[in-house]
Amino acid sequence: MSRRASEFDGLPRHELNTGFHWKRAPGPFRRISEEQSLAYAKQGFFILEDAFDSAKVAEVIAEIDPLEAKNEVSLRAREGGGLSIERAGEITFTNQLSGRSPRLREFCSGEIFRDLAHDLLGPNVHLYVDQSVYKKPGTEQNFPWHQDNGYQYIEPQHYLTCWVALTDTDESNGCPWVLPGVHRLGTVHHQHSDLGWVCAKDPEDAVPAPVRAG
């Protein structure tokens, strides 16, 4: 059971977050069920099983891998082997894939993502960022608790992150963790650290979201 947003009032709002009010898209829905819509409204996430088959996942990986490899080489050439929150051999962020590969552009603008955006946000949406995140075996540092809007603050604050697993993930190898209900506060205050922007430290009510590839 998720906690109500009022119970997270110890998390101060982002300084630009004024007057935010959470609202649930009313439907009718193209892709999701009523139960999934309610889960998103209450918890801030749900898992859409088997969105993509193994062939599509393999196609996406084949398109991303060469781009990520170039990013890895670039990082290794830098002093210290890193840039901002990227670290060679540990974690890489390869950005704007849809502008670098026709197949990835087709993937990002595909029917599934269009339907999810329609069902969870409404009919008028824009894609403003896409990226791959490769968290590699042996990484010792945890990635800090954050909201995506803590990195790139945008308005309106009703935004949607679609996280596609390219490999099976669970608590042992880096699956997502979520703090249910915080999304209803809008963007909360973030502090900068060497590992990235941070909005919470070791929250007790965090829940894992293990997912299979696709």
Itemize the secondary structure elements and their pairings.
Blueprint: H1 34-43, H2 54-76, E1 82-83, E2 86-87, E3 91-95, H3 102-108, H4 111-120, E4 131-135, H5 148-151, E5 177-178, E6 191-193, E7 196-198, E8 207-208
Antiparallel strand pairs: 1-2, 3-4, 5-8, 6-7
Structural account:
With 214 residues, the chain is α+β, with helices and mostly antiparallel strands. It has five helices and eight strands. The strands form four sheets. A two-stranded antiparallel sheet has the order 1-2. The radius of gyration is 18 Å and the shape is globular.
Number of strands: 8
Describe the main β-sheet briefly: 2 strands, antiparallel
- In percent, how much strand structure appears in the residues? 5-15%
The string of secondary-structure elements, in order, is HHEEEHHEHEEEE
Order of the strands making up the biggest sheet = 1-2
SSE-based structural type: alpha+beta
| Silhouette | globular
Number of discrete helical segments: 5
Distance between the termini: 26 Å
Please give the radius of gyration in angstroms: 18 Å
Calculate the mean pLDDT score and round it: 92
Low-confidence stretches: 1-7
Helix content: 25-40%
